[in-house]
Each structure stands twice: as structure tokens, then as C-alpha cells.
Amino acid sequence: MGQMTIQAAVTMGQLQKKMDVIANNMANVDTAGYKNRQADFASLLFQQIDNLSDPQNAEGRLTPDGIRIGSGAALAQTNMNLSQGAIKDTGRNLDVALLDKNNFFAINVTENGNTETRYTRDGAFYLNPLNDGQVMLTTKNGNPVVGINGPLVFADGFEAINITENGQIAITRNGDQQIEGQLAVAEAVRPRLLEATGENMFKLPNLVGLNYNADEIVETTDLENIRVKSGALESSNVDTAKQMTDLLETQRAYQMNGRSISMADQMMGLVNQLR
């Protein structure tokens, strides 16, 4: 396979990954708390070919000696844009929007018998009944929302429940309002290290081989620094117009590399016909 074909084929595969990232962004344009992803490319290894047979005759040459033949481009990393999305009022007491861009709600997720803490910006919470006359604050999928003392569980039979601007859970019983819980909010110190798990959630990476501890990636936000807005949700920060522009540019680059393969094939056909 010729060098031109290899370069184009490798790059096309990476461009397809970028289109997948764009498609995922556009599919989540209406997902509460979703953060836009940006695909960044980098050049692969190149081959240095010296083309100067007589260096003594190169006096006065301004351009560098040699030809660099690359191997195409690769998707280097996918960065998450943590800029604040628009805050949309919903009027629902259990909808909560975080007002600081690097903050996340903590959620307990159990898979295959193992429970781990995951993080999300989606503050659409619900009350799920338990078997002992209690209710628990959960996500739409039934995963427990984490408070400072663990999952937020309350005795049923209250008249109203509200979440204050600093994340406290205020419950009204017999006309008397009491604070019965506190949302735990985490700050992503190094958000690029978080791993997406689906369902608009993230988790800590495997720390083996990393030079960071867990609290150097995500740390608990002090209670006095928690800022939320109840009765509202944070909208996705995806810019649809930019995503469409990026998609068109990526498709054009994909088509150009596909045409390069066709041209290389035609050139090889002409070479094979020479006598």
C-alpha cells in the first residue's frame, strides 16, 4: 500500500472519531448539565528523508535539508468544555442547578455488586420510596444522591421539601421547617482526568500509574462555598451552530482524504500500464 493511501486511510479513521464526538454533542443538546466535548488532533510520527547528495554545494541554502513524510493525523485528546450553561427555571422544587462551573453533584452508582461515586451536573432529582416508610433522593435512574453523611434519606409524610441556595434540604412537617440534609458537592480540580461513564456522569480514573491522588483530581467543596439554584436546571452548553460548522469541515476533510485514496489508486493503475 502506498504512502499516500496509508496517510489518507489513517486520517479518515480519526476524522470518523471526530464526527462521532460531534454527533454525541448534538444528540445531547437538550440534556441538562451536559458539557460539550472538543476533539483535538496531533500529527503522527514522520519519516525524515535526506535529499541533499552534496552538502558542500548547499552554501546559501535557506530551506532545511530533507523531506518529512508523515503518517497522517490522530485524535490526540477529547477535551470537555466546562463553561456554564444557561440556567433555565423549571419551578420544580427538586430541580437544582450548580452555579459554579467546576462543581459536580455526587451520585452513588452500583454495578455488578460494586458501588462507586460518580459525578454529574444534572440536578434533576426525585424522591423514591423505601420499604420502611422512608424516601430517598435519587436521580431519574434511581441512583442515590450523596449528601455529606451519605445517601439522603428522609422519613415520609412531610408537607414540603425545598433545597436552599447552599444545598441544604429543608423539610416542612406540621408547619415546622427543619434542615434534614445537605447536598455534597465536589469540585473537579483536574476535570480532564475524569472519565465519562455514560448517562451524563463521570468517575475518577484508574489512579495506578498516575501521579495524582483522588483528592488532587476531585475534592469536596466546603459547605460555605456551595452555590446552587433550586427550581432550575442548567442547560447544555453545546453551541449547535458551531457543531454544524465543525461537522461540515470534518466531512469535507474526510471526503478530501477519500479522494486522495482514489487518486493514488489511479496513479498506481497508470504505473502498472507502463511498458
UniProtKB/TrEMBL annotation:
InterPro entries reported for this sequence: Flag_bb_rod_N, Flagellar_basal_body_rod_CS, Flagellar_FlgE/F/G, Flg_bb/hook_C_dom, FlgE/F/G-like, LlgE_F_G-like_D1
Keyword Cytoplasm: no
Subcellular location: Bacterial flagellum basal body
Keywords: Bacterial flagellum, Cell projection, Cilium, Flagellum
Ranges for domain Flagellar hook protein FlgE/F/G-like D1: 103-170
GO cellular component: bacterial-type flagellum basal body
The Flagellar basal body rod protein N-terminal domain, residue ranges: 11-35
Domain Flagellar basal-body/hook protein C-terminal as annotated: residue spans: 230-274
Classification via PROSITE patterns: FLAGELLA_BB_ROD
GO biological process terms on file: bacterial-type flagellum-dependent swarming motility
Protein's UniProt keywords contain DNA-binding: no
Pfam families registered for this protein in UniProt: Flg_bb_rod, Flg_bbr_C, LlgE_F_G_D1
Main location class: other
PANTHER family from the UniProt entry: FLAGELLAR BASAL-BODY ROD PROTEIN FLGG, FLAGELLAR PROTEIN
Family affiliation: Belongs to the flagella basal body rod proteins family.
Protein name as annotated: Flagellar hook-basal body protein
Source organism per UniProt: Terrihalobacillus insolitus
Lineage, opening ranks: Bacteria, Bacillati, Bacillota, Bacilli, Bacillales
